[in-house]
TrEMBL record:
This is Probable nicotinate-nucleotide adenylyltransferase. The keyword Nucleotide-binding applies. It comes from the Bacteria. HAMAP family: NaMN_adenylyltr (MF_00244). Pathway: Cofactor biosynthesis; NAD(+) biosynthesis; deamido-NAD(+) from nicotinate D-ribonucleotide: step 1/1. The lineage of its organism: Bacteria, Pseudomonadati, Caldisericota/Cryosericota group, Candidatus Cryosericota, Candidatus Cryosericia. GO terms for biological process: NAD+ biosynthetic process. Catalyzes the reversible adenylation of nicotinate mononucleotide (NaMN) to nicotinic acid adenine dinucleotide (NaAD).
Amino acid sequence: MKTVLYGGAFDPVHAGHVFVGHEALRLMAFSTLILIPTGLPNPDFDKCLSASDADRVAMLQLAFAGVPDVEISDVELRREPRPSYFVDTLEGLRPRLSAGKPVLLLGEDQLLSFPQWHRYQDILDQVELWFVPRAGRHRSGNLEIPARALFDINPFDSLSSTLIRNRLQQGLSVDGLVPASVATYIAGHGLYRGQ
């Protein structure tokens, strides 16, 4: 059985994340999908988190409720406060991984910045790299990184957590952009309002 590792801020998890997770399980039959919410972001990538770790995990649990062969790992969230490097995450997950190389699933934007990841060559030695394509990108300038596209066209290409947070800050609806259970959670906990 193959293990697929799919990490991200999931701040919040949205319909595109859910679609990618389902497609990974469908296309890589007999797989386990491990969702890995980001811990303290690497300062080199100028990213910050809006929701708490507990809220992001709760939203992932709601979004993937009832989907077999999906786990949520808190390996990055349990790490002492320091930048979250994926090479350390791999080491922390090692006892839970099946035999053979796991698949690391990235967005195409992450693939393009992959050579900037801490000890990226060590990661490449330990995983099969797959990516979710973005319109207009198609790996330009990064052909030295061996990676396969999960599919050809991403129907959620323009959807992002940033877009959802912006809509919520403006008091706009996110119906259809996030699972209904996640929308209810966000409203009930007052997340992303007035940030």
